[in-house]
Each structure stands twice: as C-alpha cells, then as structure tokens.
Amino acid sequence: MKRILLVMAASVLLAGCPSTYMPENKAPVETVTPPPEVEPVTPPPVDVVPIPPKQTAVDWSAVVAPLITQMASADSVESGKILLVDSVKNNTNGALPVAKVTSAIVNTVDNTGRFNLVPQDVVVSARKALGLSQEDSLVTRSKAIGLGRYVQANYVLYSVVSGSKDNRDIEMQLLSVQSGEILWSGDGKIDQ
Q: Exposure pattern of 40-58 as b/e (b: 16+ CB <10 Å)?
C-alpha cells in the first residue's frame, strides 16, 4: 500500500506541475490583404510656354520733339523763364515708363535752349516736401502748379499719355504758374 500511495502522490504532484500544463492561448491571426496595385502616375504633358510678343521700344525723344518745338516757338512764351517739367501722367490701360518719358521731355526741352529748367533733383526733393510720390498716378494740373510755385518756376509743362496699348496719344500743356492759364497746348500720336 505504501507503493500505491507513493504512486498516487507522485501522479498528483506531476499532474499539478506547471511545466507539463499548456494553456490554449493563441495570438489572434489577422489576415492582411495586399494593397491594390497602384498604376504609376504619369505627369501631365508639359505645355510649351508661349513666347510673349516682342515689346517695341518707343523713341520718346522723337515723339515729344515736334511738340516741344511747337511750344518753344509759341508767341505767348517768353525766353529765359524758369520751367518745371512735371512727371507725365499715365492715363493708359497699361504700364508706361513714366520716368523715361519725363526724362525724354526734360532733355528735349533743355536742347531748345529757350528755358531755364528746374533741376530734377530739386523737383524730387520738392515732391517729397509736399508729400507727393514720384509715382503719383493722380497728377493734376493744380498739383503741378502748386509744385511750380514751391520751386518758384514761371511755367509748368504738364503732360498726359492716354489711350490703349496700340493707340496712345500724348497731350502737353504749358501752364502759367502765377495765373494757372494754359499758354500753349499740343498733342500727338505715339507711333510704335
């Protein structure tokens, strides 16, 4: 009987041993579906960049020279007086090289020898003092006359370019600073 008890005790001990006990804890298995095949993305066709039309350069000196000649020979204009050439006003529907046009007018007037011009650096500092921008697109005759009074000029040359890109005109007026009277007026077509 001792033997039976020993065998039973041994079997109970062996049955309770954790090394022989294996639980059924399995990790969950997930099925992975492969992603759908992606077609390679082809870039859109490259559009050819259109070449912009060539911009024709305007010879501003040639445009303003006939008008300046008319102005210099006007009967109501006295020689040797001080003339302020105001910035050109742009009334076109596009960009206009205002500084280039104004410079062409100044050089052409200077070549006539009929007027004493207000130097452009004096005009720039006077504009700053009066709070007028160099690129003022709202240039008016009254602003031009006020600027002329500030620099003590006798005359102001007021110029306006108007029209569309293909059909532009320039109008010039010589104004008396003292009275505001238009002493001379002329206009011309701008050929490209």
A: eeeeeeeeeeeeeeeeeeb
Is residue 28 assigned to a domain?
no
**What distance in Å separates the CA atoms of residue 118 and residue 59, rounded to the nearest whole number?**
24
Report which of residues 166 and 90 the model is more confident about.
90
Domain span at 134 = 60-190
Q: Is residue 92 part of a domain?
A: yes
The domain total for the chain is 1
Cα separation of 77 and 173, whole Å? 12
Highest mean pLDDT: which range of 32-41, 124-133, 166-175: 166-175
